[in-house]
Amino acid sequence: MHVHRPQDQLAGCVWLPCFADTARLSLTQQLLFVYRLAVGSRFGVDGCFLRHFCFTIDQFLAGVRQSADNAALAWWFLALPGASPQRISREKIPKSLRW
């Protein structure tokens, strides 16, 4: 599976396609156990992303599971209350998520 770069965008948002790829690999147990433990960790970039857009790792994994592809995931993501254009704007993204 091709894993997107962190600076790639989906729905105008950096980190989303890379995070989705990692989540898909984790859900299918194609990541080493130690990496699966880190997916969505509140201490890393995933946690920063989740806090910034006001949703949980469980919600994200459910969105990834129910989305057939990245286009469907983009629709799911943009429907979240925390995924407003203002929050997606580069100026509003925490520095740890910028590239």
Can you characterise this structure?
The mean pLDDT is 90. The protein has six helices and two strands, in the order ββαααααα. With 99 residues, it is mainly α. A hairpin with a 2-residue loop joins strand 1 (9-10) and strand 2 (13-14). The protein starts with 8 loop residues before the first strand and ends in an 11-residue tail after the last helix. The chain is globular. Strands 1-2 form a two-stranded antiparallel sheet. Helix 1 (16-27) packs across helix 4. 49% of the residues lie in helices and 4% in strands. It has one domain (20-97).
Brief overview:
With 99 residues, this protein is mostly helical. The protein has six helices and two strands. It has one domain.
Could you outline the blueprint of secondary structure elements for this entry?
Blueprint (H helix, E strand, L loop, with lengths): L8 E2 L2 E2 L1 H12 L5 H6 L6 H8 L4 H10 L3 H9 L6 H4 L11
Antiparallel strand pairs: 1-2
Helix pairs in contact: 1-4
DSSP summary, beta strand count: 2
Strand order of the largest sheet: 1-2
Number of DSSP helical runs:
6
The gyration radius over C-alpha positions equals: 12 Å
Succession of helices and strands: EEHHHHHH
Content-based structural category: mainly alpha
Question: Which runs of at least 5 residues are low in confidence (pLDDT < 50)?
Answer: none
